[in-house]
Structure formats: C-alpha cells, structure tokens
C-alpha cells in the first residue's frame, strides 16, 4: 500500500473516531437524563432486596493499560466478588441477588458505565474491559485490544460472549480494533438490542463477522 493511501486511511479513521466520540456523548446524556426515574427505581430496588452499596466499582485496564474505575449497578451479594476470579457468572448463579438476575439479563446493570463514557474512559462500542489480573496473560497480539477505548458492548458480546472461549473473544476484539468503522459499530449496536431482548445464548454460533 502506498504511503498516500495509508495516510488517507488514517485520516478517515481519525474522522470516524471523532464522530464516534460525539455519538457516545450524545447517547450517554440522553439515556442518563431521559431515564433518570428508572435508574432511581433500580437503586431503591437494590437497597431494599440486599445489603450493600448500590454500585459495584472495580478498577480495570482501559486504553493503553490506563487503569479506570468501572461502574455497575450491584447485582451480587456483598463479598461474592472474591469468589468470581477465573469464573464466568452465568444465569442461575446463587451469588446473584433477586433483582440482580433481572438487571444482568436486561443489561441495565451496565448503565452506570455511561458515566465512564462521558468521562472519555470508555465508549459505547469497544472491547469489554477485563479484570486487572488478566493482563498477565496478554501477549503482543492480545494487547492490541487495549489500543482502543473499552466498550459497554462489543463484537464478542454480540457473537456469543460467555459461551465463547476466551481466545475466541480475544480474536474478535482484535478484529474489531483492526477493522473499526462506524458501520461496524452500527451493526454491533443493532445486534446488542437483539442480545438484550433474546439473550446471549441465541447468538451462539452466529458471529457478526468471520474471523479466520
């Protein structure tokens, strides 16, 4: 590829990234302010059904390994996080509170991460931020997933998510980083609606893209 072609692609990517950021801010403000009464009801439900804080806050690696504090509505009993390392939290897990099951199934527990989006620490779409401990397993290829802002949803999340192997999720994340476009973001957001309505298991074996 000629140098001029590379520069053109870089400029196109930078332009799309600016539009992506504007869209992130616009959607985050609309959802946080427009549905504030719902978030207040969720907070009350969490406090009434289990002891502990409303929010679960955890430090995770973000863009270029910069540590960020990621926000979620708490869906598990206090202290359960100590049992989670190396495990996937699936439907029916006894560590999840009664209201937590609904919040996780509907993805409402992720809504507070819109605060991370507004702060510029996350995006609506991107590789999901993992636990800090996972960094010790990263090689040069997997580390590419950290060259974009982490997202609330991503290519792996709409292609089977926890029903995929960790290596397959990493491959999808790296593919997303290398093939980012506003069109791909739009497809991921549209399928995210389907995941919320139908469940992640409905998209097992139905990847949005084919990774070699």
Description:
The protein is mostly helical and 212 residues long. The chain has helices at residues 3-34, 36-49, 98-106, 113-118, 166-178, 182-198, and strands at residues 55-61, 67-73, 123-125, 151-153. The strands form two sheets. A two-stranded antiparallel sheet has the order 1-2. Strands 3-4 form a two-stranded parallel ribbon. The radius of gyration is 18 Å and the shape is globular. The chain starts with a helix and ends in a 14-residue tail after the last helix.
Counted beta strands: 4
Give the termini separation: 22 Å
Q: Regarding quaternary structure, how should these chains be classified?
A: single chain
Structural classification: mainly alpha
Précis, in short:
This protein has 212 residues and is mostly helical. The protein contains six helices and four strands. 43% of the residues lie in helices and 9% in strands.
Looking at this protein, list some descriptive labels.
212 residues; mainly alpha; two-stranded antiparallel ribbon; two-stranded parallel sheet; 6 helices
Strand and helix map with partners:
Elements: H1 3-34, H2 36-49, E1 55-61, E2 67-73, H3 98-106, H4 113-118, E3 123-125, E4 151-153, H5 166-178, H6 182-198
Parallel strand pairs: 3-4
Antiparallel strand pairs: 1-2
């Amino acid at each position: 590829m000629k140098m001029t072609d590379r520069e053109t692609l870089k400029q196109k990517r930078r332009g799309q990234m600016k539009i992506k950021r504007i869209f992130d801010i616009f959607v985050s403000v609309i959802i946080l302010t427009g549905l504030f009464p719902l978030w207040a009801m969720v907070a009350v439900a969490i406090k009434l059904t289990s002891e502990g804080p409303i929010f679960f806050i955890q430090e995770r690696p973000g863009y270029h390994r910069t540590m960020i504090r990621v926000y979620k509505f708490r869906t598990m009993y206090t202290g359960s996080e100590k049992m989670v390392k190396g495990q996937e939290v699936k439907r029916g897990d006894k560590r999840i509170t009664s209201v937590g099951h609904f919040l996780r199934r509907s993805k409402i527990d992720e809504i507070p991460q819109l605060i991370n989006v507004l702060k510029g620490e996350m995006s609506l779409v991107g590789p999901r931020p993992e636990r800090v401990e996972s960094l010790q397993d990263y090689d040069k290829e997997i580390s590419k997933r950290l060259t974009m802002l982490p997202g609330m949803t991503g290519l792996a999340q709409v292609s089977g998510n926890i029903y995929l192997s960790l290596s397959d999720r990493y491959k999808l994340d790296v593919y997303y980083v290398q093939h980012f476009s506003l069109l791909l973001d739009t497809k991921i957001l549209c399928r995210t609606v389907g995941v919320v309505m139908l469940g992640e298991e409905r998209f097992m074996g139905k990847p949005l893209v084919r990774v070699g």
